[in-house]
Amino acid sequence: MGNVAKAGAIAKASKKLIPAKLKHDAIVEALLEIRFETGTVPEVLFGRLADYGPWKSLSQRPMPASLMPAAFRQADPSLRYQPVFGLAESNGTREVRIGPQVLSYHRRAPYVGWEKFSSELIEAIEGLYLKAEGLMIRRLGLRYINALIPDVHSIRSISNLDLKVEIAGEPLAENVNVNFIVSLSEDTDCTVRIATPQFVQGLLPPNTSVVADVDVFTKDGFSTQDKSIAIDWIGLAHAWEKEQFFRLLPEKTIEDLREN
Question: What is the pLDDT of residues 146-162, one digit of tens each?
């Protein structure tokens, strides 16, 4: 699999006019995860990636999973793709996490914009292909975690979204955690998670009312050795991610936030 150009035509078009940019974005974290197979010894791969030009200035640090024996991590499916080595910007806004079969690239608030972020993701893909021998990508995932704030985004509860959550006709607006999956193409799905802060781990901006977590990922069975397919996929995934996020917002909210 991996014919993302063909897959892109299968996704449904949004009925809403999606802004190119918002006055105030809600992005807490954006990340790309790549799961792969390679013939390169993990320790050698880690050293090569730490020495990769765009990442040379980042500080190195071990990840919690590095304390577990490699054989134990490999045998447990829930640990197999845990990163063991990290490269981080001193101010915490940028991080690369690396494991024997995974690399993820993270950008935290303030978001740098898609033009800058996409160029960094392409650098990450190119670096992995440059440093890992016989690379086979098995999964790609592009994920945006958004924190909506009443005074900024006019979303005070789940009920302010373009979404109905009811039990026996009674709307639910507080203490809500809703997950659903949308099929986007032959080889790509999207999981959308909408939750109030009680159900979300990690640091959120003060007064967050709703968290919208949009995760676009390739389906089981996807694989490619072609770097251009991986790069093309991130562009499609970003368009799909925006569509799924803005589906959640009422049209008036979108217009109020649109940057002219």
Answer: 999 999 999 999 999 99
Measured CA to CA, the distance from residue 244 to residue 47 in angstroms comes to 38
With beta carbons less than 8 A apart as the criterion, state whether 149 and 213 touch. Answer: no
> Quick check: bond before 110 cis, omega within 30?
yes
- Which residue from 51, 55, 32, 53 is spatially nearest to 43, judged by alpha carbons? 51
Domain ranges of the chain: 4-257
Q: Which of 127, 113, 126, 121 is nearest to 141 (CA)?
A: 121
Sign of the Cα torsion 247, 249, 251, 257 reads negative
Extract the tokens encoding 73. Answer: 């991590």
| Among 49, 24, 12, 16, CA closest to 256 | 24
pLDDT digit string, tens, across residues 28-45: 999 999 999 999 999 999
Instruction: Please give the Cα distance from 142 to 106 (Å, whole number).
Output: 10
Q: How far is CA 187 from CA 6, 82, 122, 141, in A?
A: 10, 23, 20, 12
Please tell me the pTM assigned to this model: 0.92
Q: Tokens in use for 255?
A: 């217009």
Give the 3-state secondary structure percentages of the chain, helix then strand then coil, rounded to 5: 30, 30, 40
